[in-house]
């Protein structure tokens, strides 16, 4: 039951994540997502057969339920339209994880301050955890994750070789990270989750 609920929650959370990218880009001068009809929360505009449906099912089977991740169809945007060419792409990238943080914080607030039953608390906690996981995982600085765009903005021009290397091999590095190194960020996910819900809930 928890897996089914988690699966149903992570999909809209990923959609909101992508919407936030498009909204941020539009606010900073790039209307590409709006013109493409992607500034909407309608799932039809965002669902990707591989990333939203097949990938999470495959990861669940391959990791025996230890890791489940999904992503929505990336929102198109043109970084050259952004008013701030240096930090604009990083801010667009950051908007997605921050949307997940706000979702996690909102549902955590319900857990902590609203009079809800124990069963409902369990489901709300899954929503919080799913969004914290999306937040932390997407900030890992490996392409195509959002963290790579933030890293590129921070790196000096002299470190262009790092960017070239990551762009060339990022997908393979990401696969290695998911299957062998994910435990490196598990404590961070757990710490943020515990901080948000008050440390009284264990999934």
Description:
The protein is an all-alpha fold and 203 residues long. It has one domain (2-197). Helices cover 66% and strands 0% of the residues. The protein starts with a helix and ends in a 6-residue tail after the last helix.
Please sum up the structure shown.
The chain is an all-alpha fold.
What is the C-alpha radius of gyration, as a whole number of Å?
17 Å
Averaged pLDDT? 90
Helix content: 55-70%
Report how far the terminal alpha carbons are from each other: 13 Å
Q: Write down how many β-strands occur, each being a DSSP E stretch of 2 or more residues.
A: 0
Largest sheet, in brief, is: none
Uncertain regions spanning at least 5 consecutive residues: none
| Shape, principal axes of CA atoms | globular
Number of domains: 1
Number of helices: 8
Determine the strand fraction and express it as a percent band.
under 5%
Q: Structural class given helices, strands, pairing?
A: mainly alpha
Order of helices and strands: HHHHHHHH
């Amino acid at each position: 039951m928890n897996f089914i609920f988690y699966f149903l929650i992570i999909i809209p959370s990923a959609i909101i994540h992508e919407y936030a990218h498009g909204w941020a880009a539009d606010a900073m001068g790039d209307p590409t997502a709006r013109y493409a009809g992607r500034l909407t929360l309608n799932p039809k505009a965002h669902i990707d057969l591989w990333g939203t449906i097949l990938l999470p099912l495959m990861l669940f089977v391959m990791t025996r339920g230890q890791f489940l991740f999904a992503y929505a169809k990336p929102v198109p945007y043109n970084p050259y339209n952004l008013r701030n060419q240096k930090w604009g792409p990083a801010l667009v990238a950051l908007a997605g994880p921050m949307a997940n943080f706000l979702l996690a914080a909102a549902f955590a607030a319900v857990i902590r301050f609203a009079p809800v039953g124990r069963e409902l608390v369990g489901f709300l906690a899954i929503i919080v955890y799913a969004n914290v996981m999306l937040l932390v995982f997407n900030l890992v600085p490996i392409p195509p994750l959002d963290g790579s765009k933030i890293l590129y903005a921070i790196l000096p021009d002299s470190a262009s070789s790092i960017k070239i290397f990551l762009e060339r091999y990022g997908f393979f590095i990401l696969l290695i990270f998911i299957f062998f190194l994910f435990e490196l960020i598990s404590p961070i996910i757990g710490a943020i989750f515990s901080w948000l819900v008050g440390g009284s809930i264990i999934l």
